[in-house]
Amino acid sequence: MVEFLSFRDGEATQEPAVTVEAFTGQSNATAVRIEAGEDARALLPHLDRLSLVEVHFPAFGDGRGYSAARILRESGYQGELRAVGDVLVDQIMAMRRCGFDSFHPAKPLDDAAVDRALHRYADIYQKAIDGRQPVWAKRHPEKIYG
Q1: Are strands 102-105 and 18-19 parallel, antiparallel or unpaired?
Q2: Tens place of pLDDT for every residue, the chain, 146 residues?
Q3: Is there a contact between 129 and 74 (Cβ–Cβ < 8 Å)?
Q4: Label partner for 107 (CA 20 to 30 A): which of 62, 121, 141, 142?
Q5: DSSP labels, the chain
Q6: Which Pfam families match (predicted)?
Q7: Residue of 66, 38, 48, 43 whose CA lies nearest to 126
């Protein structure tokens, strides 16, 4: 069973994450946890000193964490971006596409199911933060940049 999954090189960050409020009020934390409903843009002035951003998913149907991930990655965040909480195996590929590179689900995931989810589709159809080339761009490279 998979209790923690990482797609990063090297060791996962082990520093305990503080709340966004605590992070913006102190100068030495390098790990922060975004709860549902908190605005990831509050972290944008501090991206250079963050090594870990945990995004909490309180329920599998709460998609606000996807937006937080995309905001952070599109703003240049290069550190570890970890999805925590109610993370289901069928969400991992979509979360990866938004920029998550590690996962700590509330309930362990089946190894075989994770492998199937990650390798199910060879091609993708939409552009995303993960840098994979959509199938339409492979067919029409002249349209990638307009």
Answers
A1: unpaired
A2: 989 999 998 888 888 899 999 888 877 889 999 999 999 999 999 999 999 999 999 998 888 999 999 999 999 999 999 999 999 999 998 899 899 999 999 999 999 999 999 888 877 777 777 777 788 777 777 766 55
A3: yes
A4: 121
A5: -BS-EE-SSSPPP-SPPEEHHHHHT-SS--EEEEPTT--GGGGGGGGGG-SEEEEEESSTT--HHHHHHHHHHHTT--SEEEEEES--GGGHHHHHHHT--EEEESS-B-HHHHHHHHHS-S--SS--TT-PPPHHHHH-GGGTT-
A6: DUF934
A7: 66
Query: Taking the model in full, what pTM does it have?
Result: 0.86
